[in-house]
Every structure is written in C-alpha cells, then in structure tokens.
Amino acid sequence: MRDTKESRLLLVLLIAIAFALITVDIRGGRNSPVDGARQAAAAVFGPIENGMSTVVDPVGNAVSAVRDSGERHDRLARLEKQNAALKAKLGSDDRNRSRLTQLEKMLNVAAEGQYGIKGAQVIAIGSAQGFSWTVTIDVGYNDGIKRDMTVLNGNGLVGRVTTVGPDASTVLLANDPDFTVGTRMEGSDELGFASGQGDRPLRVELLDSKAEVKKGDRLVTFGSQGDKPFVPGVPVGTVTRVDPSNGGLTRTLYVTPFVSFTKLDIVGVVVQAPKKDPRDEVLPAKPKPTPTPTVTVTVTPSADASTNASDTTGQQQ
User: Of 143, 178, 192, 253, which has fewest CB within 10 angstroms of its CB?
Assistant: First the structure.
C-alpha cells in the first residue's frame, strides 16, 4: 500500500474501530457482543496455533531441559562437594579420635610415673644433617624444652631431645644406632645398656653374664644422673631373644621396643622428673595366659560289644 493521505486516514479509522471493539468487549464481560466473533476466530486459527505449538514446544522443552540440566549439574556438584567435605570431616574425626586415645595413654603413663610432661606433635621425620632416626616436634625453648630431656608416649620410651629451637626441637629416637640408654630388668633389677639398631630389635648388653633372663621379660629405663637425658622407670621393651653367655663378661639380649617408631604422632617431653623412682609401676599389666582347654574322652561300649559280652557270659554259665 502506498503512503497516501487516504491510506493514513484508513489506518487511523481502523485503529479507532479496534479500540472501540476492545472497550465494548471489556465492558460486556461474558455477554460481550464480540464473543461470537472471537469464538469463530478461535475455530479458524486454533488448529494453526496448535500446530505451531507442537513445533515450538519441543524447542522450549529442550531449552528447559538444558536449563534444568545445568541446575542439576550445579546441584550434583554441590552434593559432591558436600560429600567430600563430609568424608574429610569423618577422616579428621577418626584422626582426632586416634590422637585423643594416644593422649589419654600418655597422660596415664605420666600419672603412673609422676612425670611432668609437655605435650607435642611430631611434625617432621628425618634429619637434614644425615640419615639418623630422628623426628621434629612442635615445641622448643619457648615452651620450656631443653637439650637432653626424655621423650615418651603412651607406649614407652621414644628418645631424647638433641637440638632445641624457639618453637621446634629434634628428637633422637631410641632405635637410632647412636642411641644408648641404661636399662633395668623388671623384677630382677639386672642392669644393662640398650642400643638402637634401626628397624631391628634393640641390642641390650647385661652387665651380669650369668643373669637369669628369659623371653618375655621386660625392661625400663634405669635413669641418668640428674635425670638427664633419661628419667627412670620409662618402659623400653620386651625380650624376644637371649644369646648364650659363652663365658663372656656381658650377656646379650634382643628387645622389641614398646614404641613403634614409624607411627609417631603425639609425644610428651619430660620437663619435670619424678620425685622417686617409679620402678616397674609404669609397665603395662601383663596379659593373662590363655587357659589350655582340656578334652575328656568317655568311652561308650557299642551295641556289638554289649552283645558279645552277653554271649560270653551265657556261655560261661
């Protein structure tokens, strides 16, 4: 249509009629005079509208699906993150429970031996200066730690402090080849010196070559002059082998330590020695021997044996 004066006048007239029909329709409500025309239009254009809907709806559904998929992905990511956090928390709780158990055992040892201890955590293994069996703990001279203090845990002797920094210290472990500690046998009080052998049992030289020693006997620290580097009564280990004396001046024992040197976490540095030697009080209670079950066998005569016995009796009569 060309843009002429008549066409513009027609457009204005159509717009005016449209507004008039809308006004009449709104005011008429359900009884609107144009309701019939609207229904007729719906009958004509309804199928077309439905056809367009079937074409457009899959696209709309796909868009919704993509949007929902994104939401599900985000929700799944959140759930996975929450699960990971929960697993980490559970793992942390397990570790905390393990540390609490270690701490309780160590406090029991300190109470039984009357040791004043400073709790610490192992924060590093090994030494930068060599291949010694050492660990680094998170306490130093700011915490009252000094060189040549005894280190223990809930199982027994761990080692001794060798170097001290402001907030960390190095501990030489009892299984190090350069480590030596005076020992005393439980009960018999036989004295000796234990030396580390790395991942092998401790080697103990008893001063008395004729001392009566057997597998399963236990040892504690004898203690040092001035309680440094070792306080008395700290459990050392259990005898697992005894070499024959062979007429020597000493007797050699091999002792499995109570402490597992590859599983150290919570330890305690003895900052105050006991007022008196605890002797064997700190050693754990010996396990009770398992009774050997006895079997009683009762012989019951068989039916054939009973019959034969009766026949024999009858013949004798």
Answer: 178
3 state SS of 190: coil
Which residue matches tokens 């915490």?
143
3-state secondary structure of 205: strand
The answer to whether 117 and 99 have CB atoms below 8 angstroms apart is no
Give every CB contact of residue 65 below 8 A, 6+ residues apart in sequence: none
Distance CA 151, CA 161 (A): 7
pTM of the predicted model as reported, rounded to 2 decimal places = 0.64
Sign of CA dihedral 98, 99, 102, 108: negative
**Angle in degrees, 0-180, between the axes of helices 35-113 and 5-28, rounded to the nearest 10:** 70
CA separation for the pair 283, 261 (Å, rounded): 18
Q: What is the pLDDT of residues 174-201, one digit of tens each?
A: 999 999 999 999 999 999 999 999 999 9
As a whole number of angstroms, the distance between CA 100 and CA 254 comes to 32
Render pLDDT for 60-117 as a digit per residue (tens, 0 to 9). Answer: 454 444 444 455 556 667 767 766 666 665 566 777 888 889 999 999 999 999 999 9
Pairing of strands 150-152, 169-173: unpaired
Pick the closest to residue 268 from 148, 106, 105, 145 (CA basis): 106
What region, left, alpha or beta, does residue 279 occupy, with left being phi > 0 and alpha being psi -120 to 50 degrees? left
Longest Cα–Cα distance of the chain, Å, equals 156
Q: Which of 128, 240, 135 is nearest to 194 (CA)?
A: 240
Structure tokens, 261: 């040197």
The CA–CA distances, whole Å, from 145 to 58, 233, 268, 293 equal 76, 21, 11, 53
Specify which residues 30 forms β-bridges with: none
